[in-house]
Please model this.
Amino acid sequence: MKHTISVLVENHAGVLSKVSGLFARRGFNIDSLAVGITEDPAISRMTIVVEGDEYVVEQLEKQLNKLIPVIKVKTLAPKETIARTLSLIKVAAGNGKRAEVMRISELMGARIVDVTKTTLTLEFTDTVERTETLEALLRPYGIKEIVRTGIIALEKGPNATRPTKR
Amino acid sequence: MVKCLEMEGVRVAFGYPGAAICPFYDALSGSSIRHVLVRTEQNAAHSASGYSRVSGKPGVCIATSGPGATNLLTGIASAYMDSIALVVITGQVRSDLLGRDVFQEADITGAAEPFTKHSYLVKNANEIPRIFKEAFHIASTGRPGPVLIDVPIDMQKAEIKDFDYDTPVDIIGYKPSTQGHSLQIRKAIEAIKSSSRPVICAGGGVFSAKARGELRQFAEQCNIPVISTMMGIGALPSEHRLNMGMLGSHGCVPANKAIRDADLVILAGARVGDRAVAAPGQVAERATIIHIDIDPAEIGKNMPAHIPIVGDLKLVLAEFIRNCIWEAPQEWVQQVTERKARYFEPNTQPVEGFVEPKLFMRALSRKMRPDSILCADVGQNQIWSANNFLIQDGYFLTSGGMGTMGYSIPCAVGAKTAQRDRQVCAVCGDGAFQMSMMELGTICQEGLGVKIVVMRNTRLGMVRELQDRLYCGRQFAVCLNGKPDYVSIAKAYGIEALSVSSDSEVEAAIDQMLKDDKPFLLECSVNPDYPSL
Model:
């Protein structure tokens, strides 16, 4: 099962390697990891998606908490979470195909951010599932390149994950 | 940097200089801090570990950049596994050259990352006071462990504007909880009171929490038998009526049967490693598990816990003492203590021309003072020591988690440096001795009355035993041929030494070894086929 974990860390050099090193040596499998600064520039938020059972998640939370620069760890409940990924997709769309690709793009709510004689590049921000749908729809035209960010996620509702540890 | 150490009350540092740490050493020469020059950097960390375990304060060790720093790694990793507070200082190349692979550059914070509680690479000299203060705080609070400070040479030479060591440590992500949760403590006490066959399993946490007194008081008050992990040996005196000895694959029958038969197990600062309990799930099926640990990550890691208590063992046990007015059923206590009586005397197999190692360890512990310190190495000698050397008010120091061969002698150097008035003895095999014998030089130079017992069986005995049992007796790469004369080696350093090869010589030899506070090496010829248990 996949779990999304939100981690507030001190915004220092080397923190990312401490966190990713922990995953490697404790044998946890990272699906994706996204990092960026928060409303407080001294604090970064990592959103980590891992594969594993309850034991793995519990251990992971505890081991993350042991890292000194880690301020707060929270596993997000799937139904109470907004999770998004950003993709850039370069599709072969030469003569005769461009209109079809544009129609799919419009239908799915993607933005066209680059056009050439032979390709279109789409920007798409949505859930993993919808991103996969878009990819499936575009595949017959020939996807030349894809880049995707790791998932970023926040809890629904007015509450915020605050930097108080445990 | 030196002033920071002075502000922390550091009296001794173990180290080995080199070019990249020279500015610090130059300043250290004008300080009252005593520097113990070891003979290889790994032993600086082991000695600092021995010092820390006996003094209860973080041990400090120092090395230069590159190979000096990488040589420390095994020592750092050993301390990490056994939760020993160390502050490790390494020199580093000039900060503007970092990453260029210049002479003696190694990414030591990167390399030590898996084995340190925390690490710093100093990039602004003004942060040195804060970093040092944090390092000592992190190393010695919560679950203790090694903290590394890597200091580029230009940072060592820089002038600091305002030296401020008074600002209290405040690390947003580090607030270890020490008070056990009162509801959990209440639940635990109820469970204890409704148990009929309780047992306490004491681990190394008893020592890090300085909770030996509380453990004893609680065990006596509630009449609960105590077993220990290897790291917990001596948490309760070996001959205490409630102490059932060490559990585990190399432990003793009374301890292993006690945990097997128990209906309630109190894990007190023990992480239940695989050598202590091979099938922790089975124990948890039979018994209610109360797990007390300062590190929340240990709870539920190796053994499922029914009642977890995160907190400082000393404080939690004090709560137990205050609120658990109850005594375990006498028939249970009788059952386990009778077993202890039956198995207390070691199962010995004397052989002509050799020293019986179990009898030797018993004799040694009877002759050493009650507060003496035994540093056991790794391998067969460690098991003979663990099961047969009786600890009273002293310490049993060994590399429990990492099982680092060569630990005992540098550990003894650190322990003796911390407490000169105690007898300190290192017991090792001829394998481990040859990994650390360069420290005879340190012992001489420092005039440390460290006693060394070499159990010479010309084998890597525990591996030999494994090959005999699991690899059809194909002994390979376990013979220590060449037969060096250890007595002559010791004498070359000016250390008095003696060799014995029969049980009848043992008593007199130990007397001679312990007659004064000078270093001594005693070589015991041991049968190469002798088993660990």
